[in-house]
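Memo subject: From amino acid sequence to C-alpha coordinates
Keywords: amino acid chain, backbone geometry, C-alpha coordinates, three-dimensional fold.
Body of memo: The sequence and its C-alpha coordinates, given next.
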Amino acid sequence: MQSIDWRIPAAYKHVKDLSAAGFAWEYLRRNEDYRDDVTCLAQKAEPSVSEVDAFACRWGVRFPARPKRAA
Protein backbone atom coordinates (compact mmCIF):
# COMPACT_ATOMS: atom_id res chain seq x y z
CA MET A 1 0.00 0.00 0.00
CA GLN A 2 1.15 3.51 -0.70
CA SER A 3 2.43 5.57 2.16
CA ILE A 4 1.08 9.07 1.68
CA ASP A 5 1.57 11.69 4.33
CA TRP A 6 -1.96 12.87 5.15
CA ARG A 7 -0.54 16.15 6.44
CA ILE A 8 0.60 17.23 2.97
CA PRO A 9 -2.37 18.66 0.99
CA ALA A 10 -0.63 18.12 -2.36
CA ALA A 11 -0.63 14.36 -1.72
CA TYR A 12 -4.42 14.38 -1.96
CA LYS A 13 -4.89 16.82 -4.81
CA HIS A 14 -6.30 14.01 -7.00
CA VAL A 15 -9.19 13.49 -4.56
CA LYS A 16 -10.87 16.69 -5.71
CA ASP A 17 -11.61 15.10 -9.08
CA LEU A 18 -12.93 11.77 -7.80
CA SER A 19 -16.53 10.68 -8.13
CA ALA A 20 -18.36 9.61 -4.98
CA ALA A 21 -17.65 5.96 -5.86
CA GLY A 22 -13.98 6.75 -6.44
CA PHE A 23 -13.72 8.50 -3.10
CA ALA A 24 -15.44 5.59 -1.36
CA TRP A 25 -12.99 3.18 -2.99
CA GLU A 26 -10.00 5.24 -1.80
CA TYR A 27 -11.37 5.05 1.74
CA LEU A 28 -12.38 1.38 1.63
CA ARG A 29 -9.16 0.02 0.14
CA ARG A 30 -7.22 1.36 3.12
CA ASN A 31 -9.39 -0.55 5.60
CA GLU A 32 -7.39 -3.49 7.00
CA ASP A 33 -10.49 -5.60 7.70
CA TYR A 34 -11.67 -5.11 4.11
CA ARG A 35 -8.27 -6.12 2.74
CA ASP A 36 -8.27 -9.22 4.95
CA ASP A 37 -11.75 -10.19 3.71
CA VAL A 38 -10.71 -9.67 0.08
CA THR A 39 -7.65 -11.86 0.57
CA CYS A 40 -9.72 -14.59 2.20
CA LEU A 41 -12.32 -14.53 -0.58
CA ALA A 42 -9.69 -14.40 -3.33
CA GLN A 43 -7.91 -17.48 -1.98
CA LYS A 44 -10.97 -19.62 -2.65
CA ALA A 45 -11.06 -21.28 -6.05
CA GLU A 46 -14.83 -20.82 -6.35
CA PRO A 47 -16.38 -18.83 -3.50
CA SER A 48 -20.00 -19.74 -2.91
CA VAL A 49 -22.79 -17.36 -3.77
CA SER A 50 -23.55 -16.94 -0.08
CA GLU A 51 -19.90 -16.03 0.67
CA VAL A 52 -19.86 -13.41 -2.08
CA ASP A 53 -23.24 -12.07 -0.98
CA ALA A 54 -22.08 -11.83 2.65
CA PHE A 55 -18.93 -9.98 1.56
CA ALA A 56 -20.93 -7.60 -0.64
CA CYS A 57 -23.44 -6.96 2.15
CA ARG A 58 -20.75 -6.35 4.77
CA TRP A 59 -18.82 -3.88 2.65
CA GLY A 60 -21.63 -2.32 0.61
CA VAL A 61 -20.14 -3.30 -2.72
CA ARG A 62 -21.75 -4.70 -5.85
CA PHE A 63 -20.26 -7.00 -8.43
CA PRO A 64 -21.24 -7.28 -12.08
CA ALA A 65 -22.56 -10.65 -13.18
CA ARG A 66 -19.80 -13.16 -13.73
CA PRO A 67 -19.08 -13.86 -17.37
CA LYS A 68 -19.97 -17.30 -18.60
CA ARG A 69 -16.95 -19.51 -18.70
CA ALA A 70 -15.79 -21.06 -21.93
CA ALA A 71 -16.44 -24.78 -22.11
